[in-house]
Amino acid sequence: xxxxxxxxxxxxTTGQTSGKKSADTMTQSQDVDLQEQLTESRVVQTELKxxxxxxxxxxxxxxxDTGLRPDWDNFFKVYxxxxxxxxxxxxxxxxxxxxxxxxxxxxANIAGGNPKFHFVVTNEExxxxxxxxxxMLDYYLIVNQMGLKNQEWxxxxxxxxxxxLHITWSEGRPKxxxxxxxxxxxxxxxxxxxxxxxPARYAGYEYLADKEVLKRxxxxxxxxxxxxxxxxxxxxxxxxxxxKSGAAGDTxxxxxxxxxxxxxxxxxxKATERQIHVIRLYDLMSGxxxxxxxxxxxxxxxxxxxxxxxxxxxxxxxxEINGAPEIISIEQKLDEIKPFLPFAALRDYIDTSQxxxxxxxxxxxxxxxxxxxxxxMDVDNNAYQNTxxxxxxxxxxxxxxxxxxxxxxxxxxxxNAMGALERPMLSGDLDNxxxxxxxxxxxxxxxxxxxxxxxxxxxxxTATEVTTQLQQAQARFSTKINNLESEGYAxxxxxxxxxxQIFVTRKxxxxxxxxxxxxxxxxxxxxxxxxxxxxxxxxxxxQRKKMEVGLRENQLFETLSRHAQIFDQVELARFEVxxxxxxxxxxxxxxxxxxxxxxxxxxxxxxxxxxxxxASDYVKAQIxxxxxxxxxxxxxxxxxxxxVDTAADMTNRLDQTTDSTGAPLDLGGGGLMPIDQPAxxxxxxx
Length: 686
What we know:
This protein has 21 helices and 18 strands. By secondary structure, it is of the alpha+beta class. The strands form 7 sheets. A 5-stranded antiparallel beta sheet has the order 4-5-8-9-10. A hairpin with a 3-residue loop joins β9 and β10. It is flat, with a radius of gyration of 45 Å.
C-alpha cells in the first residue's frame, strides 16, 4: 500500500482534509476506497492567462463559424419566411410557412408546462425525504418563469439542434437564462457537457453590456467583510473609435446583431457608445471563471463558484452503551463538489462524435424551399391563365403599349387586326405535389396528423389504419421526449441542486405546493449530502400517464359496479369520488350524504297453528328449511306422485270411457250406455 499513499500525497485536492473517513461514513473497504481515489480525476486551481482564455474563445468560435453558423442563419431565415435556396426564378415570390407551423406544433407538444422533478437517493446514507427537493425545484422553476424559458429552449433545439440554458445564483435562488446558440461557445474537441467519452473542458458565452451598469454592480468580499465592485479594469478597455462602438472587434456574429440586421433595425452611435463586448468563460482545468472586456483585459477573474470544498463538523449525538444513554461526538462531512459547467444542453438528433446536434429545420429546409418553388410556379400559372395576352397586326405595332386588359377599353384598331393568343392548358398536378411535400415534412419530424390533431381527409382510411398511425406517431414522439428528459432536463435538475448545496449552507424552510396546499419543510444541507438522481417528467409525459391512469380507473369502476351487491354502496361511492378528486375529504363527503330514512314498521303477521303431519309435502319441505334442516327428498317425490294422481283423476272425469292412459274401461254392468262401434266394412274384414 506504500505506492498508493505516495501517489495520493503527490496529487492533493483543494479543500480535501485527509484520506481518512469516520467510522459512520465508511461503507466500503479501504482498498476499494483508495482505488477510487487513485482513479479520480483531480483539478488543481491555477492562474489562467488572458492569451490562453482568448485562444479558447477564438478556437471555439472558429469551429462554429466555418460550417455551423451559415446553416443556423439559413434555418432562422426559412423559419421566419425568407427564401434562401431558389430552384425556380419566377415573377411571384410567395412563401408557405409550413416549417414555422411544424416547429411551433412541436414546441407546444414538448414545452407545454413546467417539467416535474423527482429526486432519488443514490446511497443508503442519504435522506429519503425527497419531497422537500421536489417542491424546492418546482418553486425555483415558477419564480424563473420556466414556462416561457422552456419554450425558447425547446425552440432553439428544434431550429438549430442544440438549445442552451445558463444557471447561476442570484438574490438567494437559482437564476435561469436562455443563451442564444450563436453567442455560446464550447470546447470544440468535446462530444457533450457530461456523461460522454470526451466531456467539455471549458464553455462560455458572449454578451453586450453597458459599462455604467457594470460599474454599479457590487459583490461581497469575505476577506474585507464589505461590498466591493464586482468588475475591474473597466476604464482601461476604452471606446472603439474605429468601429464607433464600445465593443471592440467584430460583433456581427452575435445573435442580437444578426437578428437586428435581419429586421432592418439599427442602433445609433449614442446607443453603443457605452456598450462593452464581454466574454464569460468557465474553465475546468484552471478552476476559474473569467470575463474579458472588449477582448483586452480581464474585468473579472476569480475561482469558479461552481464548486464546493469538503467540509466537516463535530456534532453530539445520544447513543446507548452497555444499556445506559451516553453523549458522544462524531464527525459529519459534506462531500466536495468538483468544478462543473453551469450549462444545460438540450439536443435533438445527437451524433456520438459531435457536441452540436441536428435539429428539425435541417430536415425541413430543402422541402420547405421546394414547396415555395412549387407555390411560385402555381401563382405564375394562375397569372398566365387569367391574364389575357394579345397579338397585333404589325401595321399597328405602335399601338401595342396602349393595349391593356381593362374592362370596356376601346382600341383604334380595325377588326381582325388584334386578337387574344391561345394558351395551352396547364396541369393541375402542382397541388398534389405540394400536398405530398407537406406530408413528407410532417412525417420526417413526427409532426404528422396524429400529433397536430388534424383529421384524416381520406374517406377510405379505415379505423385500423388511423389507430396504427396514431400508435406510430406516439412511439416516435415518446422516444424523443424520453431522450430530452434523460439529458437536457436531467442536467438542469442536477445543476440547480448543486447550486442549492453550494449556496444554502444552513437549515432553511422551503415552500412545497402539495395536494393540500402550500406547506413548509426544512432543508438541511447536512442531511442532503452527495449526488441525488434527478428524474424528470415533461407535461406531455404527465398527461400521457394521467390518461393511462384514467383508463385503469374506468376499468376498476366498471368492475366494482358489476359486483356492487357485495360492497357497501356508501364506501364504494366514497372510493370513486376520492379517487377522481383527492381533495374531497371524508368530512366533505359525509356532508353530502342524504339523511337515513326513518324505520318503517312491518305489518303485523297472523300466526297459524296446524299439525306438521297434516301439512302437504311442499309445506313440510318449507318448514324443514325454516328450521335449518335439509328437506327430505321424499317430499318432492310424494308431491310429484300426488300431482300425477290428481292429473289422472281429472283425465278420467273428462272421458269416462277410457282411463288416463287411453285404454277403454270395462262398462259391463255399469250404468253407462256402451258407445256404438262403427261397423267394419267387407274390405276391412277381408
